[in-house]
Write a sequence for this structure.
């Protein structure tokens, strides 16, 4: 029986040396005995997300890690975000990421409506409507976040955002980028005009204003994308796959390629996620599924908060949970890596490579002194993320010979 493959992607894993950490990266500073063990007893090196030097997002990098070429299939983050919220998205639909924001006149005064903590389902449900032959549906996410999907013929994702991306700026009119997207732009602008009247008169917003709270009276749209056709993971690789993921966007990618959901209580997509539950579940399901994808968002969240010490703490909590996978190498190949580097000094993504380890527990070993940027670079082993699945397939003896 061939080993199963467990791919653990630590979001924003890589980093640069920080002065507050005495010139070390958070990963170098963290106490990570379990990941260090894996790095010493596996094939370890550096992984270049998407391609050399490319500053990528989590969406394009996860597609690449899974063997889907982003330059061929990526159309924008919107469809994946919508699917991650459980919305129905079909090939040809156009989807947006959205924020509930506060508008005074035409000016955006708060892009997150005071980071609204109330459930916004009431607002989203009121905005679903049909304009011409296009059905528009809105669904709420966490806090101010939401997604919008347009269903119908003749749509195009090649349109601009309504989100000005800064406060004290007017809401933008959405523009078509070419002739084929004129219908989409016209209908979504009409939707936004109607939605403002609906949101302004909504009892929830009237109450918030009376309490001195910023109303959620504008739906800012960005990241339009036309849902792509992605070959099912099972058809592409001949394996039964599943996912353990907290954040909607990566859940959406997993759903779009047909991976099955593994429910784990308390996975939040944030720093307070159930680390132990995730890793225990991976171990428990390693014989049921031939492939499992896990995303751990917490390192990226700490880095975007420009909190190097917080990222150290996150890595140590992940490492404690990794103990659940020590000794599993007889029946599963565990891959630990990141989707991109995020600097905890600047809070931005960078084009730096990330550490990667294929924990094999076999004689096929390129061991590193530890699981961090510096030690993994010393092995001389490296690959681009688009080759990761191919490399995993050959380690688990799933690849046929190429050539005579």
């Amino acid at each position: 029986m061939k080993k199963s493959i467990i791919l653990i992607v630590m979001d924003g894993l890589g980093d640069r040396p920080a002065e507050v950490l005495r010139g070390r990266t958070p990963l170098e500073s963290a106490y990570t005995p379990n990941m260090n063990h894996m790095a010493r007893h596996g094939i370890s090196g550096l992984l270049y997300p998407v391609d050399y030097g490319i500053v990528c997002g989590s969406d394009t990098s996860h597609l690449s890690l899974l063997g889907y070429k982003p330059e061929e299939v990526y159309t924008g983050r919107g469809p994946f975000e919508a699917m991650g919220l459980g919305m129905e998205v079909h090939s040809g639909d156009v989807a947006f990421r959205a924020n509930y924001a506060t508008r005074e006149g035409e000016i955006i005064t708060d892009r997150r409506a005071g980071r609204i903590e109330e459930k916004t389902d009431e607002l989203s449900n009121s905005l679903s409507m049909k304009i011409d032959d296009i059905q528009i549906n809105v669904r709420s996410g966490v806090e101010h976040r939401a997604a919008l999907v347009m269903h119908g013929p003749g749509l195009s994702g090649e349109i601009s955002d309504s989100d000005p991306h800064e406060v004290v700026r007017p809401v933008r009119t959405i523009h078509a980028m070419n002739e084929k997207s004129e219908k989409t732009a016209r209908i979504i602008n009409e939707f936004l005009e109607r939605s403002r009247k609906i949101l302004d008169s909504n009892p929830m917003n009237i109450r918030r204003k009376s309490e001195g709270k910023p109303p959620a009276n504008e739906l800012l749209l960005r990241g339009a994308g036309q849902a792509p056709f992605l070959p099912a993971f099972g058809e592409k690789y001949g394996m039964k796959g599943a996912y353990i993921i907290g954040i909607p966007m990566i859940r959406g990618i997993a759903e779009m390629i047909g991976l099955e959901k593994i429910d784990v209580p308390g996975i939040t997509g944030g720093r307070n996620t159930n680390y132990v539950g995730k890793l225990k579940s991976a171990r428990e399901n390693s014989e049921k599924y031939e492939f499992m994808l896990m995303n751990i968002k917490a390192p990226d969240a700490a880095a975007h908060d420009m909190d190097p010490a917080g990222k150290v703490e996150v890595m140590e909590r992940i490492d404690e949970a990794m103990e659940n996978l020590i000794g599993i190498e007889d029946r599963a190949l565990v891959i630990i890596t990141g989707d991109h580097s995020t600097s905890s000094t600047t809070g931005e993504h960078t084009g730096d490579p990330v550490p990667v380890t294929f924990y094999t527990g076999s004689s096929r070993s390129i061991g590193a002194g530890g699981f961090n940027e510096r030690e993994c670079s010393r092995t001389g082993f490296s690959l681009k993320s688009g080759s990761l699945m191919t490399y995993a397939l050959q380690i688990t003896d799933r690849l046929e010979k190429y050539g005579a």
Notes: The first helix runs from residue 26 to 29. The mean pLDDT is 93. The two ends are 26 Å apart (CA to CA). The chain has two domains: 4-74+229-395, 80-226.
